[in-house]
């Protein structure tokens, strides 16, 4: 995965500082790799922003290059911030019509993606009409051309779901299933889409029925990414109203993984989930006939 500077500003600032420190020392990446527990290839990826170093790695890096205390303190600050990055939507969208290409970039670099949604159907499962109506409610609003491009790009992302070398897991609450962005036929088509995708061997879709006894609380949705490259650590993305949050700290990622496991205990899967979708569709059709 090659994150863009616009999306991972904190990581890029840290990368630039580490590279500047090494350049000023006159030491090559190969020489530095002999002094710290980081391979030369990873040093290159860290300096380009493709990999996020841990705090111990950054500390060893600075010590090996005899960095002064104030530089060490700055690097620690940048590293800590990079492990939880908050990017306001207004900054991310500055000069860009939409962010679907950046999201696809993250998804393309993952081996497994686990997505929990409590408000709407996950983007990778949305029909074109559902996506168009949902994105049409965005703030700030899209101009007409950008809205069309965003919908097309979201649908283009969905091709990854059919890649059998990737694993996709979804948890969707009843409230998210029932959220209705348009006429009933939009919702019925969306449920059909979910039922169809659930039959794929590399896809797992769990539904949390209304009335299920809760084993945990979830105030917002999130996605857990397990990178295909084993040298990259899992990370979490959260879409807040005002900003996009990326969680890289392993201890924080573990909290999301624990919450994921608890919601899984509340969910139904496979045939039971298919029957639940069919029941919802029957109930909706009964109210409009």
What does this protein look like?
With 289 residues, the protein is of the alpha/beta class. The protein folds into two domains: 9-82, 434 Repressor (Amino-terminal Domain) (Orthogonal Bundle), CATH 1.10.260.40; 87-288, Endonuclease Chain A (Endonuclease, Chain A, 2-Layer Sandwich). It is built from 13 helices and seven strands. The chain has a seven-stranded mixed beta sheet, sandwiched between helices. The longest helix is centred in the last third of the chain and has 19 residues, at 270-288. The termini are far apart. This is XRE family transcriptional regulator. Residues 18-72 form the HTH cro/C1-type domain. Pfam families: DUF5753, HTH_31.
Could you name the key traits of this structure?
289 residues, alpha/beta, 434 Repressor (Amino-terminal Domain), Endonuclease, Chain A, 2 domains, seven-stranded mixed beta sheet, disordered N terminus
What's the short version?
The chain is α/β, with parallel strands linked by helices and 289 residues long. The chain has 13 helices and 7 strands. β5 and β6 form a beta hairpin.
List the helices and strands and how they pair.
Elements: H1 9-25, H2 29-33, H3 40-48, H4 55-64, H5 69-82, E1 84-88, H6 89-92, H7 100-108, E2 110-117, H8 128-135, H9 144-157, E3 167-173, H10 174-178, H11 184-197, E4 203-208, E5 222-227, E6 235-239, E7 243-247, H12 250-266, H13 270-288
Parallel strand pairs: 2-3, 3-4
Antiparallel strand pairs: 1-7, 2-5, 5-6, 6-7
Helix pairs in contact: 1-5, 4-5, 7-9, 8-9, 11-13
